[in-house]
Amino acid sequence: MSTLDPASPPTGELPFFVYGTLLPGEPNHDLFLRGRTSGERAAVLHRALLYDGPGYPYAIDGHGRVHGTLLTAAPGVYEELLGLLDHLEEYLGPGHPRNLYERVVREIELPGEERAGKGQPEEGTPEEGTPEEGAPGAGTVRAWVYLAAAAVTRSLRTGGSVIDGGRWVTRRPPGGPRTP
After folding, report:
1. Which of 11, 31, 117, 147 is the most buried (most CB within 10 A)?
2. Which residues are catalytic?
């Protein structure tokens, strides 16, 4: 599992991995992120599954991957952005019984990053940009991710609908209405 030791909290300002209504082009992107980010790039969360929710998705630990965007907070707005995202995701604190999501630190792959210390791929290994399924590449960073809280995860595992391919935006019908 890619969970980092919760007993040693992260230091510094970690970027955020988003995979639903905060993605570029989605309704909450402009509402919560406009003017608050200094960088956004495609990224992948390995060892996770994406489930359909009531107008927004949930990611949980699992055997798959979730495609999304890595966001870096603009200078001077990190605490504001962290508070806004915690409020949006209904995160009240680690393990709080009323959490909708838990904010956790995970390793996030940045597709297309050169593997550290490698030039050409070794014979029999995947080409650059196509890491083995479920295995993060060397181009990884630690980031905050909002995963479904324990009660939500239990419900999803028993009766939820997995989003094949781990891309939530593909769930909207072309030209269909966007959810809030």
Report:
1. 147
2. 89
